[in-house]
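Structure tokens please, single chain.
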Amino acid sequence: MPSSLGTRRRRSGLLKSLIVWLVAGGCLASFSRAVQADYAIYQIPGTDAGLLLEGKTNYNPGGTVTFRHPRGSLYFNARDLKVIQTPTRQTIFQRKSGKILREKTVDNYIQLAQWALQHGMLKECKSLLSDAWKLDPTDVKIKKLASLMVHINRAVPNDSASEAHVRNLIGGSRMEMSRSRHFALFHDPQTEKDAVTKMTRAEMRLELLEKVYESYFLTFALRGFYLKPPSEPLNAVLFSQHKDFLLMERRLEMGLKQVAGFYLPDENISFFYDSGTSEVFQYLIELTDELNELKEQARRNRSPNAANIIRLANTVSLLVDIEHESEDVATVSHEAVHHLAANTGLFPRDGVFIRWVHEGLASYFESSKLAVWSGVGVVDESRISYYRALEGDTIRGSVEFIVSDLGFLVETALGDQLPAYGQAWALTHYLFTERFDELIQFYGKSRKIPADTPPKEKAIKLVELFGECFGDQVTLELEWRRYMRTLKTDMEQLAEEL
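Here you go.
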């Protein structure tokens, strides 16, 4: 199940507030000279909320700003926008390259490749590994990585029996199937292409799934742990309509509420829907339609403020588009990791289900930046906020409570699972980054717990195994707290520069 739910609630509220203010008259602009910028914090008037955007700004006469986002241009009042000049990821990467590769060794290439992968620079990561192999093809580490890349680059064959099974389950005789190297995506017929990527939504989802696939394997491999790639295509279903997704969920009798996607272990299928068809987005789309109608009327009537109305309509439409793509990216990246973990031996499909382990790992890989694949281990505002809210709670915030896997049961009883997601993400973030070998050992030992073990017995066994792998929990908890205090969201890091 997707932990993107928490991010979705927060973002949807921000977007509604922002659009309401824009429609009330806060947006107008005409532009001239260009000024380079990487990040802009847009403070939504009348609220404490801010929206972080990455792109370039043009300051205009009259106190307005044109912000050029990769998916189009936005228009704001300059007093509501804080622009921070920072190096781009590519610039930082070049600087690190010059420093780390001053001495060209295989280990240095691998170190830089790991940084690139964590920051969403998958192409650069693979290029560095290729350079390392050319430098010394006899090196044991690079030989293993090169062998993994051969597997990753090799497409798995179609599986007619698997395809028939999926179609029978979803009643999808009319759904099309599109293939990538490692995924089979079942979706409604699509002809409309995204204005920026020039791809259909199904093609965009397959491209993202492949990025997550490669990043998943390389993230473990660059730490010395090699997972076996599946030999059959991984099946996923993308519904064009939210109502069809809900119908499927009810048919499966899963009892899920307000989820944006889920992975079904018994059937080995991931399910998603186009987030633009949810109730929240339908409201926003209706609003953009009304604004577009006003825009056309202003054009026809040659209204004196037609330019402002047109820019307002375009800005709102683009904000909805960015949020739409962002939600899809977050959900797909999260559920893809559930799917991969179950098919690479990390957490076998028929093994014990440890909620904090599964959701913690999927959340660690979940991309949370607006409308792009942002890499691995991103510090998401929603996740860290829930962690901080329980940091001082000696019971619900303790390592032992999280590890026991009782957190999700308790938080569900309290009415909201999101705090449990935040705790699972935070502990996994620390262990994956600082105690990786022990974490892998714990994963291996926990797989031996019988799948039908009652919750209380499972909780006792998990705490026992965790102690065997990590040692004294008091010391670990102190180290974890110190580590978490070093983590900051992009917004917090930029705020320090203001």
